[in-house]
Write a structure and sequence with these properties.
Layout (H helix, E strand, L loop, with lengths): L7 E11 L3 E6 L4 E6 L1 H5 L9 E6 L6 E6 L1
Parallel strand pairs: 3-5
Antiparallel strand pairs: 1-2, 1-4, 2-3, 4-5
Amino acid sequence: MDDQEEIDLVEGRITETLPSTLFRVKLSNGKELISYLGGKMRVHKIKVLVGDKVMVQVDPYGGKGRIIKRL
């Protein structure tokens, strides 16, 4: 299987900012998840604030999510 086929993208809203550039995100399916900024968002210094809608790539093992796009 190709890794690209297994990517699970979910829309969410940032509810809280945490230390070390971590964010608490409430997903569209109702779950809350700790997420971090993806690499390109860090490189291009894209800022995200509480209340922003974001696209999150969810880890298949349930731990964290990666914010890949601000909507």
